[in-house]
Structure formats: structure tokens, C-alpha cells
Design goal:
Shape: globular
Order of helices and strands: HEEEEEHEHEEEHE
Number of domains: 2
Distance between the termini: 70 Å
Number of helices: 4
Number of strands: 10
Largest sheet: 10 strands, antiparallel
Structural class: alpha+beta
Helix content: 25-40%
Length: 236
Amino acid sequence: MKREWKRIMMGIGTVAIFGVVIGWFCNFGMIGPGLPPSINGWYFPQPDGRYNDGTQIFANTGAEHYGMNGPVSRICPEMFPVLSSDCIQAQYERFYANDSGMDSHYIVISWYFNDAIKFSDAEHELNDFLKRSGTVSDISLDLNPEFQRISALRADNVQYSFTSVPVSQYTSNVTSGYFITYARPLIRDRQDYIVMYYGVLNDSDIRAHATFLTTLLVKGGFPQDPDVISQLSESR
């Protein structure tokens, strides 16, 4: 009886170990440690400071009164075409210096793609829409002032070899801001593509909000390889 019970326990232990190994292989061996099927949200700005009346504040920024308004949503706003089913967005706000109320409202949107053709098609569709609904131009955005102002660029204190990034600047009465894309930012063999948008709502004066939009962009972090970073492209 004891021997039979021992064999049963050994069998259970073997199955458990086998399950752990298979689980490890599925979660890490096939897609790499920490890499989910979708990486949407990896470069999304998440506040890291104290809460203020339900709004979580960004710490270590040049905009001390600056935080996220509500949780991240997987329902993309209607101001842009539906580019991807894997889309997230959140709204942010800048407080008055005495915390007595809100100033301007901002939005960050992230569209994720795991297929190069769908990514390229989405860029074409978005470019066509932007040209019809507002003004779009390619610029180089200077990040050096924000890099100097923010003591911790990311939680892991990653430092970057570049001080500017290419973005597509968009202005309209509904929203104005910057588009930036990341093509295969983590592993060159993985088909990961992201379109990010950092914008102010209901304002066409993008110069008045450039500092705060750049803060959001920097707090989201960047791929370390500048070659994967680009503005919107007509064709690839």
C-alpha cells in the first residue's frame, strides 16, 4: 500500500514538473521573457507619483501639477479612424499651480499591429484622414530639455543615445499633437508595430502645449534603437 501511494505521489510530482516546464516554454521560450502577444502599453505614459483628488500625478517632471484623468481605456476615441482592434487611450490634465482646478486636457493613443501590411495600410489611412481634417507636417522634436528636466526617464533609468526624434505634427480644431511610430522595437524578428499619438484636446495652438506633450512622450519612454523610430510614413 505504501509503495502504491509512493508511486502515485511520484506520478503527481512528475506531471506537476512537466506542467511547469511546458508553461515556462509557452510563456518564455516561444515569445521571450516578458513579451506578451501584444506589447501595446509598453511605451504608454503611466503616472508614478501621489494621488490628488483621484488623479495620479507624474513625479520628477517639469510639470509638477500634471496627471492622468481616469484609467486607461481600450475604447479608442472617435476623433481618428479605427486603425487597429488593439488600441488603448487615456486622458491627462494639467492643474493650475495652486491645484484649484484643471487647465488643458491631453490625450495619448496607442495602436498596435502584429502585421507589417496592416501597419502600412493603417499609416496610409491615417495620413489621408489627417490631410483632410487638418494640417500635418514632419518635424524633428527636440527632447533635450525634457531629458535634462526629468531625473528618471523610465523606471529602469534607461538612458538614450539620441536627443531628438522624428514625429508627424498634426493641428486641427479638434486635437493637435504628435504622431510617432515604432517598427519592431523589441526584437527584429517579431512583427510588432505601434503608432502613438500625444495630443491636446480642442486646441490648434500646438506651440502652447509643446512642453507638456513632450513630457508625456518622454515619460512613456522609447526604444533604445533610434532606427526603429519614425514619423508617419506614406510607404515603407
